[in-house]
């Protein structure tokens, strides 16, 4: 999977909506997320750089085929193509890392749109059943770890996100130290 495709899917996953919907909302200024327009601009730059990188790879391949067909053994013809490709790959990686950093910043800002807020420090009243089941499962475990608690909860028919599991572990550990 290309860096562009991976980053696009990551953006869609983090926002919980297709990229086209995100672009439409950003164009209408309907988004409360201050990071979204920057993410979209950086993703566009990444896409352009990805297209240029693919073109440079095709160019290098053609130059290599020509050099090979001519019986040319030195790489003087290929060096400019290689240098351009390396530069574009660095740019592509830099653009991708910028988008990834922006997505991390967005999570730190706790912007809405990516699902439930992780600001909760303990379970809400509607999570009492989950907490009771987690206590029962934790009582059977010799050590309270993420790797041990997740399958124990699965045995109770409970499948939860990694973030929510972390909150449960935090709460259970706090209860054990009391």
Concise summary:
This protein is mostly helical. Helix content is 70%, strand content 0%. It folds into two domains: 3-109; 125-177.
> How much of the sequence is in beta strands?
under 5%
What is the count of DSSP helices, taking H or I runs of 4+ residues?
A: 7
Q: Please state the CA-atom Rg, rounded to the nearest Å.
A: 24 Å
Structural class: mainly alpha
Number of domains: 2
Shape label = elongated
Topology, number of strands:
0
Largest sheet: none
Helix content: over 70%
Runs with pLDDT <50, length 5+? 111-126
Euclidean distance between termini CA atoms? 48 Å
Q: What value does the average pLDDT take?
A: 83
Order of helices and strands: HHHHHHH
Overview of the molecule:
By secondary structure, the chain is mostly helical. The protein has two domains: 3-109; 125-177. 70% of the residues lie in helices and 0% in strands. It is built from seven helices and no strands. It has helices spanning 3-15, 19-27, 36-69, 79-109, 128-139, 146-155, 162-177. Helix 1 packs antiparallel against helix 3, helix 1 (3-15) runs parallel beside helix 4 (79-109) and helix 3 packs antiparallel against helix 4.
